[in-house]
């Protein structure tokens, strides 16, 4: 029996490094590849989000085509073509064939991608389920050739494997990227479908042209609602209140600044050089000491002083909302709503990260009555279709006193022909999982969502009141209208005036009176 | 304006590899370090789970001490000492200072740890929040010296940094590991507390001795309930039905087997050599072809044939349940319950992974009435304290018709002085996140949980029926008892017999009759 058991030596022989790619291959549900239907959506989402990010960064109005072909036996071919800046030849393999590779993780800048996992995870999923490499074509300039790669991801090493690498001049747009993948998938309609994702993406990116060929043969085209890119989100320095002791210490060791005071004022936002010197003195650290020569105790004292100091909030020109007017226009155009109102709140901060919330509420038109209101959740212009009942947006919505705003509700959620769109934009969205499906319910974020909803609902409630008033008035008017002919008939007999003339005059008088009533009511 | 925008070249300059350690540092909520209270629990959990795994693997009855000291200013010192086999000197830095390093990821074996993230994540969290290295002492043998390391994790490289490394002969147990960490934390009581985790760990590991010094000065000791380690969980080969095409192809390229038929029969469980040859023929592949010379098409054909073939379920001697008798004993001892029943279901399979479910239900005793029943969720002997409303166990419980088993219920969950323990054990637990808080709701897993609950509830329902009967009887008896003195008094007057004698005799008669009734009822 004892032979079954192991010594420390035997155990040591079994311990080894685990590849990040193998880890996510085995735990692919963490990346949004739980099941075939969700996987099809995730692959498309990762591709389109990258295209939109690249276009925006390059200042190009996006023009994106998505094609999904059903190959039978639960297999699909996904094609995504954009008019973005293209990807340099030497970067293509890393971007598609390596997990945790990207340009956005270390920047504090609002973008769709954050972690450098998305598109390479799609490549991983494709080869896991079909064994096929991913085809990528890229051109960065009309004077350059088109580069075509067939890429796999070596999961043991987390390195790209180039199966084929050719270049040619061919029928290809001046610049852009073309991706073709084969995956195991399932095509579904409904709230968590690719169709819905494309529709909501068009809504959240109204400066984009999106064409989508669904596997059932349908073609959906979304044209631009605005012809201008949003304000470019700038990259900012970290705010001192969002940096933990361990990170602060590491930064102090790796900085290029020549002194600790210079480090504070150059590597963080909102610390001036005089303020930096003041914090140093309070922490009993000589301001022109070399930053990496500080002891742990000195670093910790300095960090504590800074955490307690009153420091200006981070700059907010790094944020780029969709905007009230654009949101209203997009919802109105899409749903032909009777009423629409949007609110973009001034930016706030959680853990040193600036963020903003905007809310748009539409009523009537193409929206279905007799249902729970449609909830659209968006994070940095990316629609979130899964985990609706989790996270900050859901929590904030359940705290709203809908009745107070004359909005019908059921189970704490709005009810009726209504759409409620909530957009959070930030330099860092705290997702509850790698698959980016819900926003972590930080108190500061929840509060801002609640305030934005309430701001917007005040407008809604005015509309709902006047809507009710108009309905009542119409009812009264129709009652009067019903009796006018009878009254005219009686008056004709009494006065000898012609019935038709009397009717016209009576109508004039009554409508004038009703209008007066209305004015009195609303003043 | 255009200068803000970037070309493909400029973008390429910003793209780089992201360190897995930096990724998890920035996303520490994914590892269970969401907030100070949960972080304190997570650190202790990772340490204790590792100690238990090591002891079990080495065939040692665990004897673990946990000390938590409040250092003020939201800082805590956590000390964990075990009597396990110890860790070899050269392995200590990797195990504590490198994420994704371990012995369990590639094995198909039931164990608490799976991914090689836990304890190194705790080291990462400690240095992030306090800047302090982790102290580790280890001895593998009474003849060896004690090795002491002070370790940090270099997040940029995901490599251990050894701050101090000494060895000495000192007052230290013959073998074992001692860990000391300083972390930012918060000590709370209640359902998600360290106290509760220790209590449930003792319940799920009744062969362990656990001593816990809480930061409030309380000392909790849990002695062994059984003096024998559970059956050792064996490591098994992957089952062909649990292997995806991409992994199958990779295995076929990396195998040491000399032919494709040998590969199938040696690298998988439940494929005999004759069966392997048969599958090869069906897939039009020559059985003695070298495995790595197959084309992708051939590999895919073979994989499809095997997926469709009827193959015996994986072996189940790799699984180690707690056991019905031990569970009942543990619950009874802990809660002094009036009734307890346990069920260990025969093993089942999801995605090629064997797993088992056991359920133990206790009633009365130390359990509080007037509350929702206590739910204890355990996965491979590790209590899950967070995300109770997510995952397979919750979903399965909500589908139970509690009333059918005469169990009180509220909001689809059992109600009253009751404890319901559900344990899933498997070679691979599909957690919904890296922080291992809930089990993914695979249909096969949900079904087995439901069946186990129902099996156990049948026993409960018998108890509840007889409990009700006993209560009714007691009520009747007390009614009779009330009238006996009056009856005796009347009979004394009529017969002249002494009242006291009459009373005694009447009681005897009545109780005999009641017992007879009871027998008639229950037959």
Description of the molecule:
The structure is a homodimer of 523-residue chains. With 523 residues, chain A is of the alpha+beta class. The first copy, chain A, folds into four domains: 21-222, Histidine kinase-like ATPase, C-terminal domain (Heat Shock Protein 90), CATH 3.30.565.10; 240-308, Helicase, Ruva Protein, domain 3; 324-464, Ribosomal Protein S5, domain 2, CATH 3.30.230; 466-522, no CATH class. The first copy, chain A, is 39% helix and 20% strand. Chain A is built from 14 helices and 18 strands. In chain A, the strands form three sheets. In chain A, strands 7-6-5-8-3-2-9-10 form an eight-stranded mixed beta sheet. In chain A, strands 11, 12, 13, 14, 15 and 18 form a six-stranded mixed beta sheet that branches. In chain A, α3 packs antiparallel against α5 (118-130), α8 (260-267) packs across α9 and α12 packs across α13. The longest helix of chain A is centred in the C-terminal third of the chain and has 53 residues, at 443-495. The first copy, chain A, starts with 7 loop residues before the first helix and ends with a helix. Chains A and B meet through α1, β1, α2, α3 and β4 of A and α1, β1, α2, α3 and β4 of B. β4 of chain A pairs antiparallel with β1 of chain B, so a sheet runs across the interface.
């Amino acid at each position: 029996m004892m032979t079954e058991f192991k010594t420390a030596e035997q155990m040591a022989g079994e311990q080894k490094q685990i590849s990040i790619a193998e880890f996510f291959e085995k735990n692919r549900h963490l990346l949004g590849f739980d099941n075939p239907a969700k996987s099809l959506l995730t692959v498309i989402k990762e591709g389109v989000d990258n295209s939109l990010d690249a276009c925006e960064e390059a200042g190009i109005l996006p023009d994106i085509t998505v094609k999904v072909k059903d190959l039978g036996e639960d297999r699909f071919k996904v094609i995504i073509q954009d008019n973005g800046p293209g990807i340099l030849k030497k970067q293509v393999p890393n971007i598609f064939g390596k997990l945790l590779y990207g340009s956005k993780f270390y920047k504090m800048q609002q973008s769709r991608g954050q972690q450098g996992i998305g598109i390479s995870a799609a490549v991983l999923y494709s080869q896991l389920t079909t064994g096929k490499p991913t085809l990528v074509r890229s051109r960065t300039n009309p004077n350059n050739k088109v580069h075509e790669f067939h890429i796999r991801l070596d999961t043991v090493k987390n390195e790209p494997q180039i199966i084929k690498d050719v270049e040619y001049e061919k029928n290809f747009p001046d610049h852009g990227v073309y991706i073709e993948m084969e995956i195991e998938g399932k095509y579904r309609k409904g709230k968590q479908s690719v169709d819905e994702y494309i529709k909501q993406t068009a809504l959240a990116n109204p400066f984009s042209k999106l064409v989508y060929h669904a596997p059932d043969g349908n073609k959906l085209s979304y044209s631009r609602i605005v012809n201008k890119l949003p304000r470019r989100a700038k990259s900012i320095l970290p705010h001192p209140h969002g940096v933990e002791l361990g990170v602060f210490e590491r930064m102090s060791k790796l900085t290029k600044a020549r002194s600790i005071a210079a480090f504070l004022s150059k590597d963080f936002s909102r610390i001036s050089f005089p303020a930096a010197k003041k914090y140093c003195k309070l922490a009993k650290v000589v301001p022109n000491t070399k930053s990496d020569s500080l002891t742990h105790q000195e670093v910790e004292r300095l960090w504590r002083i800074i955490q307690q100091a009153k420091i200006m909030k981070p700059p907010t020109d790094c944020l780029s909302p969709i905007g009230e007017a654009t949101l209203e226009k997009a919802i109105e155009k899409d749903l032909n709503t009777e009423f629409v109102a949007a609110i973009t709140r001034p930016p706030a901060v959680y853990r040193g990260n600036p963020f903003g919330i905007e809310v748009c509420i539409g009523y009537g038109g193409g929206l279905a009555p007799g249902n729970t209101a449609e909830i659209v959740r968006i994070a940095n212009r990316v629609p979130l279709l899964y985990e609706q009942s989790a996270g900050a947006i859901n929590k904030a919505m359940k705290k709203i006193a809908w009745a107070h705003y004359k909005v019908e509700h059921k189970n704490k959620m709005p009810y009726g022909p209504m759409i409620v769109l909530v957009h959070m934009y930030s330099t860092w969205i705290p997702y509850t999982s790698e698959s980016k499906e819900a926003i972590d319910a930080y108190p500061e974020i929840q509060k801002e969502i609640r305030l934005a909803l309430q701001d917007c609902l005040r407008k809604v409630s005015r509309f709902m009141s006047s809507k009710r008033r108009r309905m009542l008035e119409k009812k009264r008017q129709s009652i009067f209208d019903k009796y006018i002919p009878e009254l005219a008939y009686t008056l004709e007999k009494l006065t000898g005036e012609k019935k038709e003339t009397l009717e016209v005059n009576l109508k004039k008088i009554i409508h004038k009176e009703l209008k007066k009533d209305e004015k009195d009511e609303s003043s």
